[in-house]
Design goal:
The complex is a heterodimer of chains A (772) and B (491).
Chain A (H helix, E strand, L loop, with lengths): L16 H6 L15 E7 L5 E7 L1 H5 L3 E5 L25 E2 L5 E7 L2 H7 L4 E6 L6 H6 L10 E4 L2 H7 L2 E9 L12 E5 L5 E5 L4 H12 L6 E5 L14 H14 L3 E3 L3 H7 L6 E9 L5 E13 L5 H10 L10 E9 L13 H19 L3 H8 L20 H11 L2 H14 L3 E14 L8 E8 L5 E5 L8 H13 L6 E3 L2 E2 L14 H27 L7 E4 L2 E4 L2 E4 H10 L5 E7 L4 E3 L4 E3 L3 E14 L5 E10 L7 H19 L31 E6 L25 H12 L16 H16 L2
Parallel strand pairs in A: 1-12, 10-11, 14-15, 18-19, 28-29
Antiparallel strand pairs in A: 1-5, 2-4, 2-6, 3-5, 7-15, 8-13, 9-10, 9-12, 11-20, 13-14, 16-27, 17-18, 17-24, 21-22, 22-23, 25-26, 27-28
Helix pairs in contact in A: 6-7, 9-10, 10-11, 14-15, 18-19
Chain B lengths: L4 E2 L1 E6 L2 E6 L7 H8 L18 E8 L2 E8 L12 E3 L13 H8 L9 H14 L5 H7 L11 H12 L13 H9 L4 E3 L3 E3 L3 H10 L4 E3 L5 H6 L8 E3 L9 E4 L2 E5 L4 H11 L3 H5 L5 H6 L2 H6 L7 H7 L3 E6 L2 E6 H4 E3 L2 E2 L5 E9 L6 E7 L10 E9 L5 E9 L6 E2 L1 H7 L6 H7 L3 H4 L10 H19 L19
Parallel strand pairs in B: 1-7, 2-6, 8-10, 9-10
Antiparallel strand pairs in B: 2-3, 4-5, 4-6, 7-8, 11-12, 12-17, 13-14, 13-17, 15-16, 18-19, 19-20, 20-21
The chains are: A alpha+beta (772), B alpha+beta (491).
């Protein structure tokens, strides 16, 4: 029997790996440019709040190489790219300015350099108002919500708080984060006949780009084709933020009958597109002497920016994750999606979950320091169990809880207790350098909370030579989705991976796609692909039984062959014979996630099909003179169910962890008083480097785990959950800081915990000690 | 002397000779590769030399041998490539598409996810392996300080590099073997000045001095790690420009018992050995200047001449009492480095004058010297502040000499004169240090910005004096990644 390569549950390298390393993987800016292509660039506002009193664009129009200047007046359809249809996100400002860097016009020129420098020549005067930049100021200024808040309630928080043995009130500031995908936003549009446009867009959501282009150009969706082979990273930053670029390029392409490309410079990309939401979490917790929580009341307010974008579902998901792994018998959680005069914040890996969860973990820390216990003890005392303490604040029962086993195993394998003892000892004698260690768990809900998004389609063609083409609605941004889907198809047909070709995501092949987001790419699209595989296999099976074997034969697709009872035929031969017998060798597959439902008004339902779990131990050292720190060792045990591809999943865990570490440590978004983002390029915005990763980095997948639900080969989603494993870094830093005051006070580290924030916290601890 | 002159620049790109006439001063190598040569494997991630997606190798003849360095193509001007060999990622893949061992290791170790940063990582590793076939994990990290990856978390990339390091895969690499490229470059070395509409490439140092006299407003471009951004981010017209990085006479190093003389055009990388041999305290610090590509491009003279208050070198070299040699035409003059910085954006430099070299006196017996850089991220970051300390004690343990200088605390790199006064003549002990701290307030009124608040800068400046003192007493008072002393001795 032939071996075949491509089976699921094996570590197959990324299907584009050899192209990545040789520079031959094609990104949109690498596509050979059509003859006569023009370049477009946005002109951005230079105030954060106010209105335009005068605008002179003559100098722009007359600049070298400029072909045209486009404004809102050039839009034939609707001047809006709001993804939720709220009509609050104009493509071009029509006079009102709501953030620094808001697009006002676009300039079309022969070259990108010409367009880019001409955009700087606009003379615009503004009636300038004081901008409201952060969450606190927005609440103080009584700024509106950009979308309806959510309340989750279980039990009676108010009365339980009044009866609690201990109560703590506090608040935490949680910073935002720029996606810093290495490939910035880009779109290239080629006009076609009639209303047609072909849009190359670096997007996680081709169908939404299609819809937006149609909406703005006032043409039906069937005139717009969106194509994306791969992105150079997305992380949520290309779920909705690609819209504006694609739309203006399409507008210019249609109006001037030329191919048009738009690619903002890194600085403009960072200034003009949304980021992870900053949050202010205010909480009151009631607990007993063992640290068992009896009640939690918390308000999570977010910097949403000037428009709603995805802030509704983001702030919802924040509330869904405050509980993390802990049972809250009486709880009230409220979201406050605050409007601010900043760029409209958007999706980012975790989608509000990390912010909610880290607020929840702060509550645990508060309890631990108040009781003088190891926070891990408090965590364990509050874990969900399988009996009575298993209802979430949104009334979903946690049915697949494996956190006890995960944490126990990690505690052992990382030698947590012994190392903690050593660190406590070290801190007693070390004067300047202090160390910290922490173990934090993760439970993350899988499914889009917008229930209708939980569907996917795929298109499968088998050709006469036995080669196979699969297309699905998901997009490849580096996460290995195409590799996993190809594995499923190869496995289904029992053929080599090399026979499978996955082509670019294209709205004319698979329509009405959902965003590749919410970690759902594989769960949805691999299932849809499998459905298509099963259909064709059924046709081939019926054919083989009828023509080669008989009705009672066992049929097996294996090793590039098909076994029909005693007969054996190569896959390609069977396919060709089926074709000659006029068997249809193409199929569309479809999948929708079962069991889920969600009533937002009532705040109850089953928004999540299942949960993914994980836990991490981080060990850090800080310098109490400067606030500098380093992460020395990290141990992770993470649950991906039965992994489709352990190497790819491990890559997601490691990468997610480091990205989460960046969010909590060095990545600082800093706006000045005028509302200008001043950390808008890698020179000022610092994501982790190779030399920031822990020198000891033990990452293990929980091999014993299987999804209890019938997901694709019992695997679990992996994109977002590992991001939150980085919470243990923050808490280890916190422990190191707390050592200065003998662990008697919760350091209340806000994030990002830059050296400056660490030093400030150390100084607070020192003052605590000297004030007795 | 009458010099030969030509108008075209010549270099080898991968395996092709390139000759360009009338290329603009502001034309970047990245745009040339992508837009004119369709070599799209080299990516633009930031256009400011901070992400490494555009990393390529540039080979230069040094003493008759080709030496390659990884650089950022986004801020490297074409005009600086005369007589060089440019190697882009497309050159690595062998005939028939066979992957280079570095590329293969990246694939098998799952070192790419989205793949956009990957060619840059491959090229940085290639640059490393050409000079060091068996690097350890810290050398690999150092070589990758200038490369950002947002997907992998770096672990598989490091593993790929370690796998190559453990093999003999690089032994027979094409770029290590003598090649016709060497002959081509040698043949081109005609001693000509290059003169175009927008820039000049002087034939030698005297020619540069003459040219600058004629064009005192010219933009002098050495490593272009700063001027590159004037073009890519600020749309400045840099013409007329004079490229000087190729001038061997400005890249001289001389180490004597008196000290080190460093030519202004020495890249950090090239100067590393001489500098750290004389001043071991500078070795960790030196490797925290920019990333590897920036250290390969950026020059010592450029870091000083641009007058930045947060340049990495001035605080250390002011504390060491370094002297500059400035040249104008045939005249030279010496100037203490600290007197070079007059005010923000204003240096002690005449029209037509340039920084020729720097002399750093060696430490005297008994002198202690340290420099501390504080930044949000340890590597490849710009200082929030940077403090340098040099002291000596007399026979009674009292402070005899003392020079302290800071960057990031004022509009220029500046000495802490009051602090120095407070220390001089006092016993070197904790009380003296605590006593001297208040003097920082006399010396500095730092500003707050996105790198740090004014308060943090002031507090840490004081604490760095504490750190310096504690270290002289043998206390562990800073972290070390490669030698985490805080983790030693723990049972």
């Amino acid at each position: 029997m032939n071996e075949f390569k491509g089976a699921v549950h094996t570590s197959i390298p990324h299907d584009s790996g050899h192209k990545h390393v040789s520079g031959s993987a094609e990104y949109i800016d690498d596509i050979p440019e059509p003859a006569g292509m023009l370049h477009l660039y946005f002109g951005l506002s230079e105030v954060a709040n106010g209105s335009i009193t005068e605008i002179k664009l003559e100098a722009v129009a007359e600049a070298k190489g400029v072909v045209a200047v486009l404004t809102a007046a050039d839009i034939p359809g609707v001047n809006d790219v709001s993804p939720t249809g709220r009509d609050d996100e104009p493509v071009f400002s029509e006079g009102k300015i709501e953030f620094y860097g808001q697009p006002i016009f676009a300039v079309l020129a022969q070259t990108r350099d010409e367009a880019r420098s001409a955009a700087k020549l606009a003379e615009i005067t503004y009636d300038k108002q004081t901008p409201v930049i952060d969450v606190k100021s927005a609440m103080e200024a009584d700024y509106p919500h950009v979308t309806e808040p959510l309340t989750l309630k279980y039990g009676d928080a108010k009365s339980a708080l009044s009866k609690a043995e201990h109560n703590i009130k506090g608040e935490m500031e949680i910073g935002g984060q720029d996606h810093f995908y290495l490939e910035g936003h880009i779109a290239m549009v080629i006009p076609g006949e009639d209303d047609d446009v072909l849009v190359y867009s670096s997007t996680q959501h081709p169908s939404e780009v299609q819809h937006m282009v149609a909406h703005v150009l006032d043409v039906p969706s069937n005139a717009v084709t969106v194509n994306i082979r791969r992105m150079g990273g997305g992380f949520g930053g290309k779920e909705t933020q690609s819209n504006a670029f694609a739309v203006v390029a399409a507008l210019a392409a249609k109006k001037y009958g030329r191919a048009v490309k738009i690619r903002p410079d890194r600085d403009d990309d960072m200034i003009a597109t949304g980021k992870r939401h900053d949050f202010l979490a205010q909480y009151e917790v009631g607990f007993d002497e063992n640290g068992v929580i009896s009640a939690l009341d918390a308000v999570l307010a977010a910097r949403c920016g000037y428009s709603s974008d995805l802030s509704g579902p983001v702030t919802d998901r924040a509330l869904f994750h405050v509980d993390n792994c802990y049972f809250l018998p009486n709880v009230k959680l409220q979201s406050r999606p605050m409007k601010t005069n900043t760029v409209s914040n958007t999706a980012f890996r975790g989608f509000g979950g990390p912010q909610g969860m880290i607020a929840g973990e702060r509550v645990i820390e508060e309890i631990a320091y108040a009781l003088g216990k190891d926070p891990l003890e408090i965590r364990k005392a509050n874990f969900y169990d399988d009996v009575a303490r298993c209802v979430t604040p949104y009334h979903q029962i946690v049915e697949d809880n494996i956190i006890h086993r995960l944490v126990d195993e990690l505690e052992q394998s990382a030698d947590y207790q012994k190392r903690r003892e050593e660190i406590l000892k070290f801190n007693q004698s070390s004067k300047i350098i202090k160390r910290g260690i922490a173990l934090t768990p993760v439970k993350f809900g899988i499914s889009f909370t917008a229930t209708w998004y939980n569907q996917a389609s795929a298109l499968l063609h088998v050709y006469r030579d036995g080669s196979i083409q699969i297309n699905h609605g998901g997009t490849e941004m580096g996460q290995g989705l195409n590799t996993k889907v190809a594995q499923i198809v190869a496995d289904g047909f029992g053929v080599d991976m090399s026979r499978i070709k996955i082509t670019a995501t294209n709205t004319s092949k698979v329509p009405n796609t959902s965003a590749t987001a919410a970690s759902s790419g594989t769960d949805l699209n691999a299932m849809a692909a499998l459905d298509a595989v099963e259909q064709i296999k059924q046709r081939l099976t019926d054919f083989a039984k009828a023509v080669i074997g008989n009705a009672n034969d066992q049929i097996e697709f294996f090793g590039n062959e098909v076994h029909i009872g005693q007969h054996k035929i190569s896959f390609a031969d069977l396919v060709n014979r089926a074709y000659m017998a006029r068997i249809h060798l193409s199929a569309t597959g479809f999948y929708k996630t079962p069991k889920i439902h969600w009533d937002r008004e009532k705040g109850t339902g089953r928004p999540f099909f299942y949960f993914s779990y994980g836990a991490s131990v981080s060990e850090v050292a800080i310098d109490t003179l400067t606030g500098e720190y380093q992460v020395d060792r990290v141990d992770i045990l993470h649950d991906v169910g039965k992994s489709l591809n352990p190497a790819i999943d491990k890559g997601q865990v490691e990468g997610g962890f480091i990205q989460g570490m960046g969010w909590l440590t060095t990545e600082e978004l800093w706006w000045d008083n005028d509302g200008r983002l001043r950390t808008h390029a890698p020179s000022t915005y610092k994501i982790p480097l190779a030399s920031d990763r822990p020198l000891v980095f033990n990452v293990t997948l929980a091999e014993w785990s299987q999804n209890k639900e019938r997901t694709i080969r019992r695997s679990k989603a992996v994109g977002e959950p590992p991001f939150m494993l980085a919470m243990s870094v923050l808490e280890a830093l916190s422990m190191a800081v707390a050592s200065v005051a003998d662990y008697k006070t919760c350091p209340k580290l806000d994030t990002p915990a830059t050296p400056e924030r660490i030093l400030k916290a150390v100084e607070r601890m020192r003052n605590q000690v000297s004030n007795g | 002397m009458i010099l030969k002159s030509r108008t075209e620049i010549r270099f080898v790109l991968n395996d092709k000779k390139i000759s360009l006439n009338n290329v603009g001063a502001d034309k970047t190598l990245l745009d040339f590769l992508r837009l004119e040569k369709n070599l799209t494997g080299t990516k633009e991630g930031c256009a400011e030399g901070d992400c490494g997606a555009c990393t390529v190798l540039v080979g230069k003849l040094i003493a008759g041998k080709l030496r390659y360095m990884a650089i950022n193509a986004c801020i490297r001007f074409i005009g600086s490539l005369d007589n060089c060999h440019v190697v882009s990622v497309e050159h690595l893949t062998g005939k028939g598409g066979a992957l280079h061992p570095i590329q293969q290791a990246m694939v098998t170790n799952h070192g790419s996810q989205c793949g956009f940063c990957t060619p840059g990582f491959v090229m940085s590793l290639y640059g490393l392996f050409l000079s060091n076939p068996n690097p350890d994990v810290f050398e690999i990290e150092k070589a990758l300080q200038g490369n950002l990856c947002r997907c992998t978390g770096y672990e598989p990339i490091i593993n790929a590099a370690l796998e190559v390091a453990a093999s003999n895969a690089m032994n027979e690499d094409a770029l290590l073997a003598p090649s016709e490229i060497t002959d081509i470059l040698q043949g081109w070395n005609d001693g000509s000045r290059v003169e175009t509409d927008s820039f000049s490439i002087p034939a030698n140092l005297d020619d540069f001095a003459d040219l600058l006299q004629q064009k005192p407003d010219a933009t002098i471009i050495a490593g272009s790690t700063d001027v590159g951004l004037w073009v890519t981010k600020h749309f400045h017209d840099i013409a007329p420009a004079i490229f000087i990085a190729h001038l061997d006479e400005l890249a001289e190093i001389s180490v004597t018992p008196e000290g080190v003389v460093l030519g202004a055009c020495l890249p950090y990388t090239t100067a590393f050995e001489a500098v750290t041999k004389t001043f071991p305290a500078l070795s960790n610090f030196w490797n925290r200047i920019g990333g590897e590509q920036v250290r390969n491009m950026g020059t010592i003279g450029g870091n000083i001449a641009n007058g930045s208050p947060i340049g990495d070198l001035p605080p250390a070299f002011i504390a060491l009492d370094a002297k500059l040699t400035l040249r104008k035409g045939n005249e030279t003059r010496d100037l203490p480095l600290e007197d070079f910085f007059i005010a923000y954006g204003k240096q002690n430099l005449q029209p037509g004058e340039f920084v020729q070299s720097l002399f750093v006196p060696a430490l005297q017996d008994g002198e202690k010297f340290e420099v501390y850089k504080i930044s949000k991220r340890r590597d490849e970051d710009i200082s929030a502040l940077c403090g340098a300390f040099k002291i000596s004690l007399d026979g009674e343990g009292k402070v005899e000499t003392c020079r302290i200088a800071f960057g990031g605390m004022a509009a220029t790199p500046l000495r802490a004169s009051s602090v120095e006064q407070a220390l001089l003549g006092s016993e070197w002990n904790e009380a003296t240090i605590e006593n001297a701290l208040a003097s920082f307030e006399n010396d500095y009124t730092p500003l707050g910005d996105w790198r740090a608040s004014a308060e943090y800068r002031m507090n840490v400046a004081k604490n760095l004096l504490r750190r310096f003192y504690l270290e002289t007493t043998g206390e562990v008072a800073q972290l070390s990644r490669s030698h985490p002393t805080h983790m030693e001795g723990v049972a």
